[in-house]
Each structure stands twice: as C-alpha cells, then as structure tokens.
Amino acid sequence: MPGTRILDMSGIGKAFGGVPVLADVAFHLDAGEVVALLGANGAGKSTLMKILSGNYTRDAGTVVVNGRTHALRTPADALALGIRMLPQELSVFADLMVAENIMIGGLPVKGAHVDRRAMTERAQALLKRMGLDWLSPGTRMGSLSHHVQRLVEIARALNGDARVLIMDEPTASLAADEVDMLFSIIRRLQAEGISVIYISHYLKEVFAISGRIVVLRDGRNAGDFVTGNTNVDEVLHAIVGNRVGDLYPPFAQGVEGAQDVVAVTGLTVPGWLRDVDFSVKRGTITGVHGLVGSGVEMIGRALFGAAPRAEARSVAIGGEPYRISTPGRAVAAGLGLVAAERKREGIVAMLSLRENMSVANMPLFTHGLHVDRTKEARTVGEWIKRLSIRARDAEQPIGTLSGGNQQKVCLARWLLGDLKALILEEPTRGVDVGARQEIYRQIRQLADEGLAILLISSDAEEVAGLADRSVALASGVVTQTFEQPTSASALMSAASKSAAA
Amino acid sequence: MSQTSTLPAGTPAAKRPIRALLGHPFAGVAMLLVFYLLLIAAFSALSPFFLTVKNLLSIGSNMAFIGLMAAAGTPLIVAGGLDLSVAAVAGISGVVVALCYAAGIDIWAACLIAVAAGGLIGAGNGALTNGLKLNPFIVTLGTMSIITGASLVLTGGLTQPLMIEGFNWIGSGRIGGSGGVPVPLIIMLVAFVLIWWMMAFTPFGRYIYASGGNPEASRMLGIPVDRTQVTLYILSGISGAIAGIIVAAMLGAAAPDSVGKHLLTVIAAIILGGTSLFGGRGSVWGTLLAVLILGTLNNGLTLMNVSSFWQDVTKGAVLLLAVGLDQLRVRSQA
C-alpha cells in the first residue's frame, strides 16, 4: 500500500472576484504519507484544501484520486472519495454521547430507531483503531476536556472509508503531552495507509511528524522538501521568499529617541497573557507577533478594555496613568482599535460607509442636539479621497465593499478624531495583495505623521516588513523584544520557542 | 470603472431595473404607501361611508394608542430589543390613574404617576435584558404576565370609572370644533415626529442603528450599547403608559384587560412597516403607514359587515404577505 499515489492535483487555479488566489498549483500525496502544507497567511493553503474537500470549486486544473479524475464539486463528492477535513474550530455536540458524536454523519438505524448497539460498537471500534480504548462511547461529550473532544472529532472523520485526512492547525490549543498523543494517533493511521495533510505554523511539529513538506507562497508552489533532507532555514526561506522589499514601505528613522505614547507593564489576561510589558512610541510602528493561541489575539483588546478580566500593573497613555476598563473609556483616552474579525467586530454591514466611519466619533459631528450632516459628509468625503476608498458613494452599505475597502473605513474612523495610539489587529486578514500594499503604505504614513501604532499579527512576515520594533509572544509571555526591525525568521523562531516544548 | 470592484459580478443595476427599484432605500415605505392607497381606493369603491373626512379621522383616532406604542417600539426593535410588555403597561397605566384618582390625588398628578410607573417598568425591562443579559423575549413576556396579573389583582378584575371632563378630553376631544382633529391622533403624530427626529437626526439615533446592526462591533467602537437599549425600554414603557391614559380617557373608564389584547397589532405594525426583528433596520414612517393600513383594513371590513373573526384572518394574511415581499426586496438588495 505505501508508495501508491492516492492523490494528484495539478494546474490548480482559483480566483475570487478577479483576484487570483491560486495559480497553477500542484500537490500530490501517497498512501500512508504525512505531508505538511506550509505558507504564510494568504499563501493559498486553506483555499487549496477547500478545493480538495469540495467546499470551493476550482477554476482550473485536474484532481486525480486513486487514478481517476474527479470533478469534486461538493463536500459530499470529497467525502465519498474518503477525503476528510477536520474543522479548525471545535464542532461537537456537547450534550450528545461520544458515540453519537462519532456516528452523527450516518447513524445506524433499525426500523425507525437509532440502532444504539451498532452505533456503540462501531464507535468503539474506531476509538480502538486510534488507541483510545479507555474512552467510553457512552460518555457525554461535554464532560470531556477540549483536547479529547478534538480526538473524538478525528474518530468522526475516520468513520466510513477515510483515505485522506486534512488537519488545519490541529495543535493550536494543545499542551505538549496532548501534541504527543495526537502524533501517536497520526502514526497509527499512517501505518494503516491513511494519508494526512498537516497544516501548521509550528515548524518544530512539522519536522517531528511529516515525511514531506510542501510550501505555497502567493498562491504558487514555492518548495517541495523531503523532511529528512532539509532544515528550518531552507523551509522558512521558501515560505517568506524575497518579495518583502517591494511590498513594504521603508522603516522609521530615529526610533530610539521617540517618546512612549503607551507604556504597559504586567498586562495579564487569565488563560491568555501573563505579565506582559510593552510600549508604543510616537511616530513608530511597534509589532507584536505570536502564533494563534499564543495570546497575540488578546493583547490589543486587553489594553482596549475588550478582553474579559484583563489587568495591568500600570498603563500610561501620553504620560497620564490609565486604568483598563471599557472600550468607551479607551476611546476617550485616545486609543482606537481595528479588530481582526472585521465582519463580526468591525463593521455594521447594513449601514452606510458614512455611518460606519462616523459612528465612533459622534461628538465631533454633534451640533447642539443634532448631527451636523454637512460637516459629517465633508469629513467622510475627505477620508474617502485620502485613503482612496473605492465605493459608489458614501451611502453605499459597507457590507457590499471589498475587504480592503472595508478595512480602510475601519482605519479612517479612528483618524477622524483625536487619536494618540492606534491598535491594529491582523490588519490585512482577508485583504488581497494589492490592497495590502496600499494599507501598509498608509499605516506607515500615519506613523510618519506622528501616530503611535501597535501592529498585532500572527503573520511574522507582516511584522518583519512593517514594524520598527517588535515583541514576540509565545504561550502568553514575551519571549523576545527587538528594538530594531528584524527578520520574519527571527520572529518565527522566537514565537515558536516554547510552543511545543 | 471603480464600480466593478464593489458590485457583485453579473448583477449590474442597470440591467435589472425592477431589482434596482426594489433595492432603493425608500422602496419599502413606497410599497406600503402604494398598498395603503390601493386599500383606500378599494374600500371607497365598496362602501359609500368609507371615504369621508369623519371616517378617516376616526380611523386615526382609534389607532392612536396602538400607533403610539408602535412608534416607541420601532427604535427599540431597531436597536436589538423587544418589548412585549408594552400593552400590559398601557392596561395597568389606566388602572393606576383610576386608583390614584379614587384615593383623592389630582387627576393630572395621577397621570404623571402612571407615566413614571411606565418608565420604571421600562427601566426594569432594560436592567434585566442588558444588565443580566437575559433574552428580551423572555424578560418582557415575564413582565407582561406580571403586569397583566397585577392590574387584575389591583382592581379585582373590575372596570374603574373615570368620567372627568378635562381628562376625557385627552381621549375624545377635538381641536378645531366638533368636526376637528381628534386629540389622540395629534398626540400620536407628535410622537412619530419626535421619534423620527431622534432616530434620523441625533447622535443617539446613530447608536440605535449601530447597536442593533452589530452589537459586538458597536461595543468595540465604544458605543454605549446598553445605555442606548435601556433608554429605549424606558421610552417604550412611557409610551405604553400614555397609550393607557388615552384609552382610559376615551372609554371614560379603566378596564384592566382593555389594551393587552392589542399587543400583537403593535408588533405586527412595526414588522409590517419594514423594521427587522433582528435589529439594525427600520423606520418610523414605515410603522406609521402600517398602523394606518391595519386601522383602515379594520374599519373598511367593518363597514362592509365582515365579521371580526375574518378581520383577524385578513390582518394576519396581510402581515405575512408584506413580510414575504419585504424579504424578497431585501434579498434583491444584497
């Protein structure tokens, strides 16, 4: 069995709204092989896997599974071919039994009833295959720990004739011994001839589990390495490439002398961050990089008062002591935050571009009891022009703009007011490469005009390309502080320091 | 050229004129207006008594208390809240006025006490939904039941007479002689104008739309979502209290169960008027037209001797039809 070519994708192309995301990508897989798929955010990994799992249809290319070409139009097509994708987020039924969770996609029936005995037996057999004999199929799912629930999800994916298992960041929230357990399960499956596509940012794990490493960059193949014959530097180089220079604007000058606009010591968010110190200086971009789950997703909102139970030993904004409380207070103190989950936390989709831009700064546009519509329209118009936001007009519902243009509105809304420091969470998530370059340029320009910017990103390349100084986070603590611009690989290695150890 | 990047491919507005028209922001209100005019035309043709100034004014007067509650309910639902207790508040408000008056309190002071009580109940609804993060449907269903029960307890289920000349003028007076404009109609229209002003022209109005459109994003922008909603619950409670006073003044008596049954009409008017139950979208003019449509339907069918049982069936059917059409409209916009 091992050595048989089970999957061959070639010439794969995909574009969204005219923007190419994948171009002529090839990917193959042998039976019983564990292949790591790597690339920076936006490199096309997820898109490629969504094509393989039938969630997206490809624009070009062929997919050959077990020697036969397949159209692969729907998730059902992929399931029938034995291709299973583990969801990135836990998706279980907490109030159902383990056995029900495993068999939910095809419950065995006897007459009109669920055949409980058959269900339990089959679930038991699947758990045994994974070496999880100790787990009783009758246990209520919600009573299990998070990582065991993840393992049950794997059992669910194996139900039926699974041939290829796609795991997207499976260890993002696992402790070291839990990672070991996952790896031993992957090796068992490998021995059965099941192939695994393993997507991860943790290079240490990738080198521990994979037999081959495939790298994508900007939607194209950028490397295919036998794990035993390569090293971290070579792989990082393939991930990052040489295009850093032209995408990013030049760094700030004279950063050392700049004064602190925000100074934080001992920032703690239970379960996320422990005793983190950082500062944001006038006229500079301070980067924070960490992998997903490292606390990088909390650091900005903790300062902003939008993280539960966030505390700090001391915070000073513009030299004045500040106590973390609510977003309203943070805005009043001169902070602004552009949230990572734009659709959920950044925009009110049904309202117009104008309303979205002005709503956080209504006092500016209030005259007596009224909104000063003329002043509002003028200011919004100026910012549309200044950030070259592409829209029919200011009245277009923001939900119908492209991601990049929505992001510019989210930026502009803070710039209208009296802002001291701007917190940017993953500022280019879901933004295409062209708009990304423009956003980077504008962020730099704002810094040049004297704004203090905190750039928070799980994309090391972005922090390396943009930040004048930066901080690396791992498991909720600062692992390294850089007072100068640094490289993506230095950030990556600092961010993965204690992740799997 | 710049439009190609912002519009979904394949649906250029110019190619589908009907869709473009339906997608216009005022299309919902325009549709209601057309429907209202058709309704008037139809009833005018069917009944000689329908199209008279007297009849049209009486429709307005009869719907005033419902319109008042629907006017205040509109911004609340737009902001993501819901007040099912408003009609029960109206019921207890009349009772409070009657009991205070019977206890020797001046009638206008009694009215103020009732309005304050309505505001207080609204504040309670707001505190439970926003402070404890309870679902507004459940909270106001609960307060509705408590208040309805309390009015029956306070009165023993008996109607309390309230025949006081100045007071009854609120319900049955007219401005401009005996054929003039009914006072309740004026109160309702003033409420609509005030709430329209609040929603369309004040910063608070922006917070209403933002809070309902995306509460999470609004909180991240420092918008006082909870304060906005609590204020609107209070406003809803006050509108219920005033509606109750109007009804009591109109009937010359406070009947504990006189208004509660109209709750569905209030909610139906808000939804028929194009306000989204999920928040973020709606206008007070849509609500006003819907109130008029429901009132006209009632009046016209009565003039045609259609039984009130069939009137309920018709009202429900119109509501479903309107909501269905509106859904099609919103989809064509997306």
UniProtKB/TrEMBL annotation, chain A:
InterPro entries under this entry? AAA+_ATPase, ABC_carbohydrate_import_ATPase, ABC_transporter-like_ATP-bd, ABC_transporter-like_CS, P-loop_NTPase
- Name the CDD domains for this protein: ABC_Carb_Monos_I, ABC_Carb_Monos_II
The GO terms this record gives for MF are: ATP binding; ATP hydrolysis activity
Q: Which residues form the ABC transporter domain?
A: 7-243, 256-500
The alphabetical list of record keywords is: ATP-binding, Nucleotide-binding, Repeat, Sugar transport, Transport
PANTHER family the record matches: CARBOHYDRATE TRANSPORT ATP-BINDING PROTEIN MG119-RELATED, GALACTOFURANOSE TRANSPORTER ATP-BINDING PROTEIN YTFR
This protein is called ABC transporter ATP-binding protein
Name its species: Devosia geojensis
TrEMBL record, chain B:
The way this protein sits in the membrane is described as: Multi-pass membrane protein
Q: Where in the cell is it found?
A: Cell membrane
Q: What are the record keywords, sorted?
A: Cell inner membrane, Cell membrane, Membrane, Transmembrane, Transmembrane helix, Transport
Residue ranges crossing the lipid bilayer per the database entry: 26-49, 56-78, 84-102, 107-128, 134-158, 179-199, 230-251, 263-279, 285-306
One GO MF term = transmembrane transporter activity
One cellular component (GO) term of this entry? plasma membrane
Protein name stated in the entry: ABC transporter permease
Q: Organism, per UniProt? A: Devosia geojensis
